[in-house]
Structures are given as structure tokens and as C-alpha cells.
Design brief:
The complex is a heterodimer of chains A (104) and B (778). Chain A has 104 residues and is an alpha+beta fold. Chain A has helices at residues 2-5, 11-25, 55-66, and strands at 32-38, 44-50, 73-77, 80-81, 98-103. Helices cover 30% and strands 26% of the residues of chain A. Chain B has helices spanning 4-20, 22-43, 50-68, 71-76, 100-110, 138-164, 175-178, 180-211, 213-227, 272-288, 318-322, 340-355, 373-378, 394-405, 410-428, 433-447, 451-467, 476-516, 533-541, 553-569, 574-587, 589-602, 616-626, 662-667, 700-712, 718-736, 746-757; strands at 96-97, 238-239, 255-256, 268-270, 300-302, 308-310, 329-330. Classes of the chains: A alpha+beta (104), B mainly alpha (778). The interface between A and B is large, with 40 and 37 residues.
């Protein structure tokens, strides 16, 4: 990759190439992940969503799959209650993580 | 995923249910197969079409799910399930998961953006099949960082240049600065532009006129002008200051006072400085701490304008309750304010003030005893007419003058003045002067004498009037002589009068005096009293009431003789007389001797004898006369403390030293003792009573104590004696106490009070004052 893109024509191109280069090395923020939600009472759901989705969106997806109402759902991890307006990426919820499903 | 056992159990429970459904079985089976397939596919690159990928994803998703489950469970699953992949969520058993497509559909329904599928995602690999991670190349990382920095710097520069590019720097030269031609060009351009602008404006106006809009435009402008604030708008505005605070000639800027946004009250103008000043003044007033309540203040006060101002109760709180009252005035039209009304009020106020009368009394001052010079001016002294008198009357004149000058006090002065007036009146009358003078002279003399004598003199003067006047002319010497004669006469008359007054009382006495001793009856010494040592002494004894008057022994002798005569007549009185004589005789030896002499001299020897008739006293006298009695008077004895009866009068101390003496033992009687037979019937009732110094009977204990004190030669100590004394006092008090009443005599007082009030009860009032001893005294 270095050999291919290392000699830019002008500054702008250089910038662009560099950013691309950087981008390649890191994982993207907005990517699809699958999160497992378990309520320990028999409901275990795997939900596909983006990293940039908020917890509220995730709750909606869960509700669609479990058949409850999304505003009745509380997602927790031990005692940490996930708030609706924060994105999954900010909560560092990665692919395959287990979330506890509770109801309020 | 941690709770494997539970999960397992649930799964077990559900498994039989699952097994009902064929598709689920198939699914399980399918899952396993797909798992293998997925692994193979994973190794390939991700750059594929979405749809195919989606299908695969679907499976892979399921596979993932299945992979996530514990291995134990998967092994359990029947691998014989069909290859029936069914998308859709599973409600029970296993993990419910949607495929990507379904998820996207759902998301579209919910209004979310579709899943962002990442191709690079799977580079790191899964837990089961970890890829070999790329080696971390620090050099690589450094290079990345450097590039990042450079990029950032370039970006910044670009932005700056863009900004700065708009501003003209000094260095950038305008073409027209140096080059005149360019400048000319430029100016021409500017002028042209101006013209163009003007033209445009004109055009616009014309257009406006065409459309009839110009009027409107004008009106708008005019409106604006009109709407602007003018002085006519100031009419009726309130200024919240006193009119006095504005002085002439100074400009004060007034601003609108703050008020709430929603308040609908009218506008008020104030000056900030004045407001602050007023506040400061108010604070100073408060700091002075004037008394809120004046108890002696008048109820209603009258204002300057003679307006009655009733005094309200607790007027100091009015400000708090009703709010501060602020003085204000309103502006008239055009913003002017006339102070005429205020000035008028002020003028009226002053007028009333001047007319007012003060109710103060003239201040009190010390009264002087004498007239002040000012008062004396108004006080006219009536001038006495000094009448020309003939020579003969000069004596009277002198008299008058003398007597007039002497000041005997107001009474005499008053009388004198009155008499002066009388005199003047008399003089002015037709009476002959000498008569008047005579009358006047008499009163003059009268002033110097006492009242009754004056009265007497008045009489005398009346008499004198008829006697004295000699109408012929006198020479001075003769006048004097006459004066002397008159004085003499008056003196004599005075004396006579005095004698007359007191005469009756002493008349007999004087007679007696004269009869007894004519020698002593000098006219000069008639009034003298003779003192004699013995007579004085006798007088003080006071036995004979009439004795002390004259103080002459001879009188006493007479009286004695008199009494003796009486005694001869009857014996009844004799005792008292004799007593007197006896008294005489016992007290004073000399006197007694004299008396004796007298008695012997005056009486015959036969007088001694008749003792039979008289009593003991006579006999005693006789004896005394004969020398049988010892008449020496014993000294009047003060009651002497009798010597304390010593207890050991009845008690003897056995001398123990003598016991063992052989000679004394020999003398000892060791015989048999027996009561006397003669004294068989003698049974004396022996009661030995011991007495202390005050005469009280002693108990055996006290008696013994007394004895011991006597024996040892010393008494009790201080405390003991004090205690004893106290006990004795208490006993005395106890004896003194009344049995029927309290120590303070309350019952007696009570009865007294009842008697005085004539009620059978007594009122106990509440306050302690009425129950004082002062009120319950007799």
C-alpha cells in the first residue's frame, strides 16, 4: 500500500491519500454489529445494528423482535443503565456483546 | 452467556417443544451445516455483491449465533436436520435474530438508516478462528503521526490565507496611488458611480410619483417626525420630587423612574442624584433615633395653615403599612411648572404665624423683696408737707422727726403712715396745731411701747390733753423742760400701771412683807428677791408650796409658828406637820438644830411631854431629842450584790492529809454512834436549795457545776458561759411570752383592728402594702 500511494501530485492529493491511508488502518466507526440481548427469562435476541445507532434505536429493534414496547425496555450491564440518546459506539458496545434486558 | 447451566436447562425445556416443529429441527440441522460453509466463505474476501452477501450474511448471522452458543449445546443438537434456512425471528428457544435484509426492512419501517455493512470488519476474525494480527510497526505509527500533523498544518494555512486574502495589506499597492493617471481614472469612476446613483434615485422617485407612492413616503417620514417626542408631551407628567429641591438657574436632568414591565401606572420622572440625596437624608434621620412615642405630645396638632391634624395611634407604623408618601408635582403644558401656588401658601402661613398668640405665660422668676429701681420710678412717694411751725412746737417736731425716722417694722410703719395721714388730715382741718401736735406726739410715743401700755397711754394722753397745753409762747428751754416733765410723768404713770396690773396677786404678799420687815420694803427693792442658800435648798424640797416665793426664813418661822398653833388646837394635822418637822430634822442637821432651837425657843418644855397623844413619830422625835437615837443618816445604799452563797458552807472538804497521822487517828472516834433518843420525834424536813446569783433555784446538775467552779477556782470557758447566758435569756423570754397570743401580739392587734373597723372580720387585701405593721397598729 505504501508503494502504491506514497507519491502524491500536490498537497491536496497528499492530504487525501494520507487520510485514506489512515482510514484503512483503523476500524470504521459506523459499522454493523450484532448485539445479543438476554433477559434471563427466556428472551434472547440477536440484533443487527450500526455502531452509530443510538440505544433508543437499538431498543426499537429489540422491541420489534421481542414483541414488547420499546419504551418499556431497559438495557443494562450490571448496574450501568444505557441511556437512550447515546450511541453504541460511545458506549463502546462492540460486536457480539451481551446486554441485559430488563423491563420497567 | 455465562449462565450456561440455566441456559442449558431452559434449552432443555424448550427442546421438546422445538422438536415438535420440523422446521426448527431443520433449522438446527441447517445451522450446523451452515456453520461449516460459513467458515469456508469467511476466508474469502468480502468484496461481493450485497445480495449474495446478504444471503450469506443471513446464514452467517445464524451461524454466528449458533457459534455464540456454548459448544455443549451445539453438540447436543441433532445434526440430522434439514438444510432449511428460514429467516424470521424466533420467539422461543434459541436466539432470535433477524437477517440483514429483514433488519433493514425493519429499520426502514422505524425510520432508521439501513445497516452499514463494513467489508473490513472481519479482518480481525472471530474468537474461534483468530487471524494473525498485523505486527505493530512503531516506525509505521510514527510516520502516520507525522503525516497527520502535516496535514493539519496545511489545512490551517489554507484557511488563513483564505481569510487574509480579503484584506488589503499595506504592501499591496493600489495602482492609483502612484500613478496619476490611474488615480484620475479612479476618481472619474467614482464620480460616474455617484451620478449613476443619483440618477437611480431620481428614477425611483419619479416612479414613486407615478404610482402615487410619494405622498405615502412623505407621510411616513412626517409620521416619524411627528411621532418623535416633543415638549407638548410633557403635560401632566409627574415629577416625584419636592418643588423646593429644584433651584432656579440650574439644569436638572430627569429620567423615567423604573417600574415593572407589566405595571400600568403612569410615568414618573425623577432625577437620580436627587433620589440618592433624599435617601441619604432619610437614613440620617433614622440614625438619629428620634423617639417614636412621645407620651406628652399633644393629641391633635394644628398645622401651619391652621388645619387640624388629628394624631393617629401608632403613627410611626403608617409608613410601613401604607407605604412611603412621596411629594410630587405635575408639569403643566409645555413642561413648565409654576410655583405660584406654593408661594401663596407660604405667604398665608407666615401671616397666620405672625398673628398667632403664644400661650406661654411670662417666665417665672424669683420674687425680690425690694422694689427694683424701675418699679421705684413709678412708685411715687407722697411727699409730706413740712409745715412751718412756730418755735414752740419745735419740740414736737423733733419728737415727730425722731420717731418718724426710726423704723420699727412694717406694722409700725404702716401705723405710722396711717397716722401720718390722719395727722395730715387733722392738720388740714381747722384744729389748732398744737393740739394736733399734742395728739401727734402722743401717738409717737405710743409706737415705742407695748400695746396695753399704749392703750393706757391713750387714756393718759386724753387726760394729758386737758392738763398739759399751755397756750403761751415758749422759749426753747422751757419746751425742753416741759418735755422732760412730760417724760417723767409718763414714766411714772407707766410704772403705776404696771403695778396696777400685777398688783392684786402680790398684794397680800407685799403687805406681809411690809409688816414683817419694813426695812426691806424699799421702793427700790420691792421687786427684789432674796436668795438664801438654805432657803433655796428648802424650797427645792417642795414640802411647803408657799415657801419658795419669798425665800425668807422668817416667813418660814412664821409659818412654823402658825403651824405650831394649829398643832396646839388639834392633833389631826399634827402628824403631817410633825412629819415635816421630822423630815426637816432628818435631812439637815443644822436645820434640825435650828429647828430644835426654834422649837425649844418657841415652845415651852412642856411640849415635849405629851407623847401619848401623838403617834410614833412624836416618840421618835422625843427620843432623838434626848439623844437616844442615832440620827446619823446611813448612806443611801445601792443594792449591793449579795455575796454568792457558797456551797461549801454546807460542805467541808475532808483533809486527807490528817488521816494517817497517828495522833489524829488517836483522836478519832471509832465508837458506835446512835441517834439521840431525845430527838426521836424530830424529823426535820430538810430541803437544801441551791441558788444562783440571780436568785433562781438550781437543779442538782447546775448546783454541782457551781460547786466545781468554786472548788477549782475557775468557771466555764467563753462558749459555755455564752450558752448558759443564752439559755437563761431564752428561759426569761419564755416566761415573758403570753400564753394566749403569738409573740408579735397578732391576736391583740386583730382585735384592735376589728374594734376600730367595727367588723367581725378583717379583709386581707392582695398587695402586701396594706398588711404592713403600719396599718395594723393601734
Amino acid at each position: 500500500m505504501f508503494s502504491r500511494r506514497w507519491f502524491p501530485a500536490n498537497a491536496r492529493e497528499c492530504e487525501r491519500n494520507a487520510s485514506d491511508f489512515l482510514r484503512e488502518q483503523t476500524t470504521e466507526a459506523s459499522e454493523m454489529i450484532e448485539v445479543v440481548c438476554n433477559d434471563r427469562l427466556g428472551k434472547k435476541v440477536r440484533v443487527k445494528c450500526n455502531q452509530e445507532d443510538t440505544i433508543g434505536d437499538l431498543k426499537k429493534l429489540i422491541a420489534a423482535q421481542t414483541g414488547t414496547r420499546w419504551d418499556k425496555i431497559v438495557l443494562k450491564k450490571w448496574y450501568t443503565i444505557f441511556k437512550d440518546h447515546v450511541s453504541l459506539g460511545d458506549y463502546e458496545i462492540h460486536d457480539g456483546m451481551n446486554l441485559e434486558l430488563y423491563y420497567q | 452467556m455465562g449462565s450456561s447451566k440455566k441456559h442449558k436447562e431452559k434449552e432443555k425445556d424448550r427442546d421438546p417443544e422445538d422438536r415438535h416443529r420440523e422446521h426448527k429441527k431443520h433449522r438446527h440441522k441447517d445451522r450446523e451445516k451452515e456453520k461449516d460453509r460459513e467458515r469456508d466463505k469467511r476466508k474469502r474476501s468480502r468484496s461481493r455483491e450485497r445480495s449474495s452477501r446478504g444471503a450469506e450474511r443471513d446464514r452467517s448471522g445464524k451461524g454466528e449465533k449458533s457459534n455464540a452458543e456454548p459448544r455443549v449445546k451445539r453438540e447436543k443438537l441433532d445434526p440430522a436436520f434439514g438444510d432449511n434456512s428460514e429467516p424470521g425471528p424466533k420467539s422461543a428457544g434459541g436466539d432470535a435474530s433477524l437477517s440483514i435484509e429483514e433488519t433493514n426492512k425493519l429499520r426502514a419501517k422505524l425510520g432508521l438508516k439501513p445497516l452499514d455493512l463494513n467489508e473490513n470488519k472481519k479482518e480481525t476474525g472471530t474468537k474461534e478462528e483468530p487471524l494473525v494480527a498485523e505486527t505493530i510497526n512503531p516506525v509505521h505509527i510514527k510516520q502516520q503521526a507525522e503525516i497527520r500533523e502535516k496535514l493539519a498544518a496545511l489545512k490551517e494555512k489554507r484557511l488563513l490565507n483564505k481569510k487574509l486574502g480579503k484584506v488589503k495589506a499595506l504592501g499591496d499597492e493600489e495602482p492609483w496611488l502612484d500613478d496619476t493617471a490611474a488615480w484620475v481614472e479612479r476618481s472619474r469612476k467614482l464620480a460616474k458611480e455617484k451620478e449613476l446613483a443619483e440618477k437611480r434615485a431620481k428614477l425611483l422617485e419619479e416612479m414613486d410619483e407615478e404610482f402615487g407612492v410619494s405622498n405615502l413616503v412623505e407621510q411616513e417620514f412626517a409620521q416619524d417626525k411627528r411621532d418623535s417626542y416633543g415638549s407638548r408631551h410633557l403635560k401632566g407628567l409627574k415629577v416625584q420630587h419636592k418643588m423646593d429641591s429644584f433651584r432656579e438657574g440650574e439644569t436638572v436632568v430627569l429620567t423615567l423612574q423604573d417600574k415593572g414591565v407589566l405595571e400600568e401606572k403612569e410615568d414618573v420622572l425623577v432625577n437620580v442624584g436627587l433620589v440618592d440625596k433624599e435617601k441619604a437624608e432619610k437614613n440620617v434621620e433614622l440614625k438619629k433615633k428620634k423617639p417614636d412615642y412621645k407620651p406628652y405630645a399633644e393629641e391633635e396638632s394644628v398645622d401651619d395653615m391652621l388645619v387640624l391634624k388629628p394624631k393617629s395611634v401608632l403613627s410611626k407604623y403608617d409608613e410601613e403599612i401604607e407605604g412611603e408618601k412621596k411629594k410630587s408635582f405635575r408639569l403643566s403644558s409645555g413642561g413648565f411648572v409654576g410655583g405660584e401656588r406654593e408661594r401663596e401658601l407660604q405667604a398665608i402661613r407666615e401671616n397666620l404665624h405672625n398673628q398667632a398668640q403664644s400661650l406661654d405665660m411670662p417666665s417665672l422668676s424669683l420674687a425680690t423683696e425690694y422694689y427694683t429701681p424701675q418699679e421705684m420710678v413709678g412708685f411715687k412717694k407722697t411727699k409730706r408737707k413740712v409745715k412751718k411751725i412756730r418755735k414752740k412746737e419745735r419740740a414736737g417736731d423733733l419728737l415727730i422727726d425722731d420717731t418718724r425716722n426710726t423704723d420699727f417694722g412694717s406694722r409700725s410703719r404702716g401705723r405710722g403712715r396711717r397716722q401720718d395721714e390722719q395727722q395730715q388730715e387733722e392738720e388740714e382741718g381747722a384744729e389748732p396745731r398744737y393740739v394736733a401736735l399734742e395728739t401727734s406726739s402722743k401717738p409717737r410715743d405710743v409706737l415705742q411701747q407695748s400695746d396695753d401700755i399704749r392703750m393706757a397711754d391713750m387714756d393718759i394722753s386724753d387726760e394729758e390733753d386737758f392738763v398739759s397745753p399751755e397756750p403761751t409762747a415758749f422759749e426753747e428751754d422751757e419746751a425742753e423742760q416741759e418735755l422732760q416733765k412730760q417724760l417723767e410723768k409718763q414714766r411714772k404713770l407707766r410704772q403705776k400701771q404696771m403695778l396696777k396690773d400685777s398688783g392684786e396677786r402680790v398684794a397680800e404678799h407685799m403687805k406681809q412683807m411690809e409688816t414683817a420687815e419694813d426695812d426691806e420694803n424699799d421702793p427700790d427693792k420691792r421687786n427684789n428677791i432674796v436668795f438664801n442658800a438654805t432657803s433655796e435648798f428648802c424650797r427645792t424640797l417642795g414640802d411647803i408650796p408657799t415657801y419658795g416665793l419669798s425665800g425668807n426664813r422668817e416667813d418660814q418661822e412664821d409659818i412654823m409658828d402658825f403651824e405650831k398653833d394649829v398643832e396646839k388646837e388639834g392633833g389631826g394635822q399634827s402628824d403631817s406637820d410633825m412629819d415635816d418637822n421630822v423630815g426637816w430634822s432628818t435631812v439637815n442637821l443644822d436645820e434640825e438644830k435650828v429647828q430644835a432651837d426654834f422649837s425649844t425657843a418657841s415652845t415651852t418644855i412642856l411640849d415635849e411631854e405629851p407623847i401619848v397623844n401623838s403617834g410614833l413619830s412624836a416618840a421618835l422625835l422625843l427620843c432623838k431629842n434626848k439623844g437616844l437615837l442615832d440620827t446619823q443618816m446611813l448612806k443611801v445604799a445601792r443594792v449591793k450584790n449579795p455575796k454568792p452563797v457558797l456551797a461549801n458552807d454546807n460542805y467541808c472538804i475532808e483533809d486527807k492529809m490528817n488521816i494517817d497521822d497517828k495522833y489524829s487517828r488517836r483522836e478519832e472516834y471509832r465508837g458506835f454512834t446512835q441517834d439521840f433518843k431525845e430527838k426521836d420525834h424530830y424529823k426535820p424536813d430538810v430541803k437544801i436549795e441551791y441558788v444562783d446569783e440571780s436568785g433562781r433555784k438550781l437543779t442538782p446538775k447546775e448546783a454541782f457545776r457551781q460547786l466545781s467552779h468554786r472548788f477549782h477556782g475557775k468557771g466555764s470557758g467563753k462558749m459555755k458561759t455564752e450558752r448558759r447566758m443564752k439559755k437563761l435569756e431564752e428561759e426569761a423570754l419564755l416566761k415573758k411570752m403570753s400564753s394566749s397570743d403569738t409573740p408579735l401580739g397578732t391576736v391583740a392587734l386583730l382585735q384592735e383592728k376589728q374594734k376600730s373597723q367595727k367588723t367581725p372580720y378583717i379583709v386581707l387585701s392582695g398587695s402586701g402594702k396594706s398588711m404592713n405593721a403600719n396599718t395594723i397598729t393601734k
